[in-house]
Design brief:
The chain is α/β, with parallel strands linked by helices. It has 3 domains: 17-100, no CATH class; 103-199, Beta-Lactamase (2-Layer Sandwich), CATH 3.30.450; 204-461, P-loop containing nucleotide triphosphate hydrolases (Rossmann fold). It has helices at residues 3-26, 35-50, 61-78, 85-100, 106-109, 143-155, 204-210, 215-226, 241-249, 292-299, 316-324, 340-352, 360-370, 434-440, and strands spanning 116-121, 124-129, 132-135, 167-171, 177-181, 191-195, 231-235, 258-262, 274-278, 306-309, 332-336, 373-379, 385-397, 400-409, 425-427. The longest helix is centred in the N-terminal third of the chain and has 24 residues, at 3-26.
């Protein structure tokens, strides 16, 4: 069985099992659980007894768990409801999980088929599987319950969320990205979004199996990274930019010094010589912020061979371009954009956000000189994430940065009976100008690479 078939069969089986479980539990009336009211009452009493000690950083996880279970046992003992031994154990376990863990979303965090969790309100929880959204049976007991889960998540990384700071970005211990918004910004109550972090980072063979790219394109990208081209990965939200960036980063030779700069650490590099930097927001007093731009500037003093910026969003774009133009070839980054051309336009705007009054032509010349290759991803209607364009930045023609498509996605191939796109990346027949540069670096491209997909000389793998 081919790799792609094995991956599809494995994922489909897991997803069918998860969705079957969802449907089974959804069919049960949420209000039919006789323990629900008692659980809410016990939980409220427990929170009242715990107070601020629940977020006491001086307590270890084991000590806090023992303290919670002790207090919980006392609260349950005060209840006069007739409970069997099994019901009492279930009550203690569920309330303990809600207090110490992530409540009703915990099972989705443990479900490998779920890639994103979206909590719109206490009883509107959605998950993403294979790029498709599904509403779940799960619900929080109250808005206070949801709010406490959010506070617990952000407290773990030393951040806060309240009326004065009603919006926060954080991450779970496994690296999953968290965004939370509470009233008054969130009109219908607290909202929580979690983009899960893969336990095992996807490798290039996984992306080939998913249809994100082809083996020939993977070899081309490997050659471009080894040959120290500056590469920008572009795409919309949730298209897989960070995943592809992680794969590209894996091609960097092991002997080079890499500095990664991210808002929240997501890259999983396997090289030995890696320094990871993470930005920091303001503290409670509104001080202590360390921005991505600060880190990019500092990285230049760290003797990096390669600089990898998780995503450029603002003025740090100017510093990154200058680094690429001053001896740090082979650097990588991502940007939100709908097309490669939009990526160039967005970078122009972000350079101007640095506060430097530069002529627009000077900005475009910086971009044209720094970026060699743009790899663009799209999230298709069938839920899959595909590389749809690979474009070379050729330089300036008049006042415009010129691009040349090397590979484009074949939309004309249509879809199968399941609505899945049958197309793949196809060469445009144009040989990129950087081919000679790669050749001078000792990386040879096959003569038919851009016309017959013969592939790259396998010597580039050595």
């Amino acid at each position: 069985m081919r790799l792609s078939d094995r991956l599809e069969h494995r994922q489909s089986s897991a997803i069918r099992a998860s969705m079957s479980k969802d449907r089974k539990r959804t069919s049960t009336d949420r209000n039919s659980d006789p323990l629900a009211t008692l659980k809410a009452r016990v939980q409220a009493a427990l929170f009242a007894r715990l107070g601020t000690r629940l977020y006491d950083s001086s307590l270890t996880e084991d000590k806090l768990l023992a303290f919670v279970q002790q207090e919980l046992a006392a609260v349950v003992a005060q209840e006069e409801a007739p409970l069997s031994r099994e019901e009492r154990q279930t009550l203690v376990r569920d309330v303990s999980n809600d207090v110490m863990g992530y409540g009703p979303i915990a099972e989705f965090l443990d479900d490998d088929t779920v890639s994103e969790i979206m909590v719109n309100s206490l009883d509107a929880i959605y998950v993403e599987r294979e790029g498709q959204l599904h509403q779940t049976y799960a619900r929080f007991l109250s808005e206070d319950h949801l709010r406490r889960i959010i506070e617990r998540i952000v407290a773990q990384v030393g951040r806060r969320i309240d009326e004065s700071a009603p919006m926060v970005d954080a991450r779970l211990p496994d690296g999953s990205r968290v965004n939370a918004v509470i009233p008054p910004l969130a009109v219908d109550g607290p909202a929580l979004t979690i983009r899960k972090f893969a336990r095992d980072a996807f490798q290039v063979d996984d992306l080939i199996g998913f249809g994100t790219l082809t083996a020939e394109v993977a070899d081309l990208l490997r050659a471009c990274v080894v040959g120290r081209l500056n590469i920008l990965v572009s795409g919309g939200t949730g298209t897989g930019k960070t995943t592809l960036l992680n794969v590209l980063s894996s091609y960097v030779p092991n002997g080079q010094r890499i500095v990664t700069i991210e808002d929240a650490v997501e890259l999983q590099l396997r090289q030995d010589h890696v320094v990871r930097l993470e930005s920091r927001p303001t503290n409670i007093e509104g001080k202590g912020e360390v921005s991505i731009r600060d880190l990019v500037r500092n990285s230049l003093r760290m003797r990096p061979d390669r600089i990898i910026v998780g995503e450029v969003r603002s003025g740090e774009t100017l510093d990154m371009l200058q680094a690429m133009n001053t001896g740090h070839e082979g650097s990588l980054s991502t940007v939100h954009a709908n097309t490669p051309r939009d990526a160039i336009t967005r970078m122009e705007t972000m350079v101007l956000m640095a506060g430097m009054e530069l002529p627009i032509r000077a900005v475009r010349e910086q971009i044209a000189a720094a970026i060699d290759l743009i790899v663009h991803l799209n999230r298709m209607r069938d839920g899959t994430r595909r590389v749809t364009t690979i474009a070379e930045v050729q330089g300036m023609q008049g006042e415009v940065v010129t691009l040349q498509d090397i590979f484009t996605f074949d939309y004309d191939a249509g879809v199968d009976e399941h609505g899945r796109y049958l197309g793949r990346l196809r060469p445009t027949g144009l040989r990129p100008g950087f081919a000679e540069r790669l050749s001078r670096s000792g990386v040879e491209l096959g003569p038919l690479m851009f016309g017959g997909l013969a592939g790259i000389d396998r010597a580039t793998r050595r």
